[in-house]
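Researcher: We plan to redesign the surface later, but first we want a full-length starting point. Tokens attached.
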């Protein structure tokens, strides 16, 4: 068997594998035997069909194709191991049969991406400062006001709409007197005074009564998220279906007791602690990103395989879609709201994908340099924790049993260990 290596651009390698007529002959025999066990031919038992009879029945190329499949399956792993010794294959190799004909050598190509050479920049003593988590008193007050509003008592009224009321409306929007696409809504809730939807919209409802239909026009901001309306004058037709007075409770100990607390100060502290925790987490993320950016800035990478970048972009897209669905939305609606096709968004995600791939490769190199490894015991412990945490979730239980899950979890834990060390060395 002869193997010729060719280094391609973008960290790709092609191995041309040639099996001589003599090398390929045993696979032809095995391929014919396998087909003879599967094909029914009158007068012959399965597996006992002579080669010439089988060739007449299924065609010689069918036998050769079966033989090629067996030859590739048998030789591919050893071929890659012997010819890609000091490099690591990224992703799944692509295989193409390049020569297959009776009485000739058999050739196939293995085309694969390999991880590029990486030279890590300085990754210790970078002096990254993490911001202190300071909660603004205005944010706490807003949270208290929002909670009080959520406990408002509502009563139907025939009076004209005023600030603070809630209105249920049917809405139709028009562009140049033509009904706008996705410009209709039914039984829409509007809180008057909350600058709902577009500036000036809810104030235009003030003075209207239940059963009335009103018409008005408003300009949409140039940066409005729905490109259909951005920067345009839009005509509105609104039918008032119901009006509610809203009586908002005072900020008092009674309000706090509704949340199982004794005093208003306890509720205020609850919000302050939660905001501080959330802000602390945000600051940790910001300082971590700044740290990784600084390391990447001083690191050198060979050509990144396009397959790695594409796979990462698809992963980012899937994460985004999952998050939108989790919030009750539809990804198609999101794409429409930002005025982009799926493929267009995918292209815009490529720079982010490149950065994520580089970060992952850099973390691997730091782990090697510092001999940071994850033990079998650490993986076992994490799996047991997940089993307890998600014991009622059948999907998680099934996922944990998947053959590749331990390796996947090991990679996550390894990255977490490296990041923890990098934070200790660099962030104060």
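Model: Full-length starting sequence:
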């Amino acid at each position: 068997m002869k193997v010729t290596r060719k280094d391609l651009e973008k960290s790709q390698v092609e191995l041309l594998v040639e099996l001589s007529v003599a090398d390929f002959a045993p696979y032809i025999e095995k391929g014919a035997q396998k087909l003879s066990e599967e094909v029914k031919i009158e007068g012959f038992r399965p597996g006992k069909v002579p080669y010439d009879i089988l060739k007449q029945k299924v065609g010689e190329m069918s036998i050769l194709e079966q033989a090629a499949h067996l030859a590739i399956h048998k030789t591919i792993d050893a071929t890659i191991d012997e010819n890609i010794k000091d490099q690591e294959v990224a992703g799944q190799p692509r295989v193409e049969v390049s020569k297959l004909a009776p009485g000739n050598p058999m050739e196939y190509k293995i085309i694969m991406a390999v991880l590029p050479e990486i030279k890590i920049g300085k990754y210790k003593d970078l002096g990254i400062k993490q911001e202190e988590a300071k909660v603004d008193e205005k944010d706490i007050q807003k949270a208290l006001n929002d909670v009080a509003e959520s406990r408002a008592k509502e009563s139907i009224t025939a009076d004209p709409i005023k600030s603070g009321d809630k209105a249920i409306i049917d809405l139709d929007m028009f562009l140049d007197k033509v009904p706008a696409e996705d410009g209709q809504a039914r039984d829409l809730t509007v809180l008057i005074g909350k600058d709902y939807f577009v500036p000036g919209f809810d104030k235009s409802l003030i003075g209207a009564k239940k059963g009335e239909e009103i018409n008005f026009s408003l300009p949409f901001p140039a940066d409005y998220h729905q490109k259909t309306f951005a920067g345009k004058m839009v005509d509105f037709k609104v039918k008032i279906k119901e009006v509610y007075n809203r009586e908002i409770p005072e900020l008092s100990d009674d309000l706090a007791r509704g949340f199982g607390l004794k005093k208003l100060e306890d509720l205020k502290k609850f919000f302050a602690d939660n905001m501080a925790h959330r802000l602390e987490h945000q600051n940790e993320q910001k300082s971590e990103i700044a740290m990784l950016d600084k390391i990447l800035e001083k690191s050198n990478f060979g050509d990144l395989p396009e397959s790695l970048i594409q796979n990462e972009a698809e992963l980012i897209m899937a994460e985004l879609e999952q998050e939108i669905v989790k919030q009750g939305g539809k990804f198609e609606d999101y794409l429409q709201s930002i005025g982009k096709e799926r493929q267009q968004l995918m292209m815009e995600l490529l720079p982010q994908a490149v950065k994520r791939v580089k970060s992952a490769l850099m973390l691997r190199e730091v782990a090697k340099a510092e001999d940071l490894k994850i033990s079998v015991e650490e993986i076992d412990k994490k799996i047991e924790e997940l089993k307890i945490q998600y014991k009622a979730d059948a999907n998680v239980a099934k996922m944990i049993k998947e053959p590749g899950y331990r390796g996947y979890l090991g990679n996550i834990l390894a990255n977490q260990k490296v990041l923890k060390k990098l934070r200790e060395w660099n962030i104060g």
